[in-house]
Amino acid sequence: MECIKKTVVALKNSKYAVAFTGAGISVESGIAPFRGEHGIWNKYEERLWEINYFIQHTKETWDMLCGGFYDTLLKAKPNVAHIALANLEKKGQLKTIITQNIDDLHKKAGSKTVYELHGNASRLRCTNDNSNYFAKDFNLKAAPRCKICNAILKPDFVFFGEMLPEYDMHMSVEAASKCDLMLIIGSAGVVHPAASLPYHAKRNNAVIIEINPNTSIFTNELVNIFIPMKSGEAMYKIENY
Ligand SMILES: [Zn+2]
User: Fold this and answer.
1) Neighbouring residues of the ion ligand 1, judged by CB less than 5 Å
2) Residue 74 CA to ligand 1 centre (angstroms)
3) 3-state class (DSSP) for residue 170
4) Could you tell me if 182 and 172 are in contact, meaning their C-beta atoms sit under 8 angstroms apart?
5) Tens digit of pLDDT for each residue in 179-232?
6) 20 and 176 in contact (C-beta within 8 Å)?
7) Domain-by-domain residue ranges, the chain?
8) Structurally, what CATH architecture does the domain formed by 1-30+78-118+165-241 represent?
9) Is the pTM of this model over 0.90?
């Protein structure tokens, strides 16, 4: 396919390529998008993801998180697309991944430089002293507590009403602003401020490549090469071209 060939050539010619990933890349790992019909998120009321609700109803929130939500997340495995991105980084063809996902699948796939705009659910943070933990180290049958001060822990992803992690956002803007190629994978471009990042890349005249089964708000506005496929299929073809 012409779009695959063009992408392979563009990647080889680029000096600073960045991937920007959204929920679409994790669908083939069994984590459906937040707003999707079959999303794990959709089984819960939206208020569950609001920080004020968490603060006021911490135990109730954890009772719900302890069920299927964490089971699904912790068991999920990286798919072909995550692994292909990790391989591109090893070959020196990809500098950075900027992700909107909280599922830890890029790091599980072996990617090293990953900026997580919405945090990472595999980590837990103390609501009192900010101590960090791995979710896998708790049995998660009830609200996990800090081993130092016994306060309840919070999943370390960004709830509605919370600020984005400052360091990751800063580094993402920097990477997007200096890249000469951006690979947008599975992002619908509806969640801000993350969705502004491809525009930073465009202003630097970067080649913008989008992998998405359906068009997004980026497709007509700034994309140079559009690959109308699921992320696993497209990345497999790019890797094995
Ligand atoms: Zn603590």
Assistant:
1) 126, 128-129, 131, 146, 148-149, 151
2) 23
3) helix
4) no
5) 999 999 999 888 888 899 999 999 999 999 999 999 999 999 999 999 999 999
6) yes
7) 1-30+78-118+165-241, 32-75+120-157
8) 3-Layer(aba) Sandwich (3.40)
9) yes
